[in-house]
Design a protein that fits this description.
Layout lengths: L21 H21 L2 H4 L6 H52 L8 H29 L8 E4 L10 H4 L2 H12 L3 H4 L10 E4 L4 H8 L18 H17 L6 H10 L1 H18 L4 H25 L3 H26 L11 H16 L6 H9 L24
Parallel strand pairs: 1-2
Helix pairs in contact: 1-12, 1-13, 3-4, 3-10, 3-11, 3-12, 3-13, 3-14, 4-9, 4-14, 12-13
Length: 410
């Protein structure tokens, strides 16, 4: 995402090329302007004066305008729908965490707790924040098609936060390469992928080695021939199911009133809403703009780029005005089309894509700040004991993190 200011009537952004749609559009505008200049000086008279009425071409230009604007509007809607959906997921996860913490704290008075109950509640507190952070991080990785577990790193609160603006984080060398590849898109044929946004997802508690191994070897137990099929895209569902199971198991313990389970099931409806919102975001990430429409729009623009010079030289006698008119007209049409290309898929690593790592970092800060209010005073005592070791060098109260349970039938 490009962060910019509207100072000086917004004129300052005119000279920013990083993340702009103009460099790619300039290529086609220059071709049309060059063709116009050639026709002015070398075009035969039968061709130059072959068009007597521009009405038919005006109708064609109106049709192209409608097609380009329609695509731009749909792309704009997709972009904001993606941003809204991600924010909705963040809010629902935050509400879910608060409700779970409230139930956990109010379900059993401290006066009736044993030391084991206190440690159990402490583990639950840490596990909930970890799983919520991990669930959201894996959702964002899934949306941008990133299944590399090395991009899941530990959130400590002391590391530098991801930079919101891609233009602020990009180096001069990256901006130069981006500008070159926009003018000459050889990177598409050479397989060069430029990463403009932070790929790391900071997760509270990080990811244990056991979790990494489990996620790295997800298998589909539908038949012997499919046992070795990697299913990286099921990681979100795995965390979701384990989180759901953990909640039921925790509040079904003998120390809780059986009526609490009913409240937990009602509260977990928020988790179902989270999965529904995630499915909505996946719709945008996996369903591109319809191919026939994109093909037709591109074809119309190519035809206009080639044919506009013939119309220009017929009705504009001054060569410099004709060349400028062809350049500006084609630049306008292709720029709107390139804007649509940029906004159609809001999840990725392009300069104008959403800064998903920043959203993950923001959720972590919100979870830490809000769950702090639900920390009983005995949590501090447990944490002090955690740093004490016995004679065998083991923690006095080891905190067991709930790992994802993956059922694989052999």
């Amino acid at each position: 995402m490009i962060v910019y200011s509207n100072n000086l009537w917004g004129l300052a952004i005119l000279f920013r090329l990083y993340g702009s749609a103009f460099p790619r559009a300039v290529v086609f505008a220059s071709i049309s302007a060059l063709m116009t200049a050639i026709l002015y000086y070398y075009g035969p008279s039968p061709i130059i004066y072959s068009i007597s009425n521009p009405f038919a071409y005006s109708m064609y230009g109106s049709l192209v305008s409608f097609a380009v604007v329609f695509r731009s509007n749909l792309a704009y809607q997709r972009y904001w729908e993606g941003r809204t959906t991600v924010q909705t997921i963040m809010g629902r996860l935050h509400v879910l965490t608060m409700k779970m913490m409230s139930l956990n704290k109010a379900s059993l008075p401290e006066s009736k707790m044993t030391q084991e109950d206190k440690v159990l509640f402490y583990n639950f507190h840490k596990t909930v924040t970890h799983k919520v952070s991990l669930l959201f991080g894996l959702m964002l990785c899934h949306l941008r098609g990133d299944f590399n577990l090395n991009n899941i790193v530990t959130y400590t609160g002391y590391e530098a936060a991801p930079i919101l603006g891609a233009d602020q984080a990009a180096t001069a060398w990256l901006k130069l390469k981006t500008f070159f590849f926009e003018l000459f898109p050889v990177d598409d044929y050479l397989g060069i992928e430029l990463i403009h946004l932070d790929p790391h997802m900071h997760v509270i508690g990080g990811m244990s080695e056991e979790e990494r191994q489990a996620f790295g070897h997800l298998q589909q137990a539908l038949g012997d021939e499919q046992k070795n099929m990697l299913l990286e895209d099921t990681r979100v569902i795995s965390v979701y199911s384990s989180f759901y199971t953990m909640m039921i198991d925790h509040f079904s313990l003998p120390c809780f009133d059986p009526k609490v389970v009913t409240s937990v099931l009602s509260t977990l409806n928020a988790l179902d809403d989270v999965l529904g919102s995630f499915g909505q975001a996946c719709k945008l990430a996996t369903t591109p703009f319809p191919f026939p429409w994109a093909q037709v729009v591109t074809s119309f623009l190519v035809i206009m780029t080639i044919t506009l010079p013939f119309v220009t030289v017929t009705f504009l006698k001054q060569s410099w005005i004709g060349v400028m008119t062809s350049f500006v007209t084609i630049l306008t049409y292709w720029s709107l089309n390139e804007v649509a290309n940029e906004m159609e898929d809001p999840f990725g690593y392009d300069p104008n894509d959403l800064p998903l790592s920043c959203f993950q970092y923001d959720l972590n800060k919100q979870l830490i700040a809000s769950t702090w209010k639900f920390r009983p005073h005995y949590f501090d005592e447990i944490e002090r004991d955690l740093y004490k070791t016995d004679l065998n060098g083991k923690d006095a109260f080891p905190v067991k993190s709930e790992n994802v349970v993956i059922a694989v039938s052999d």
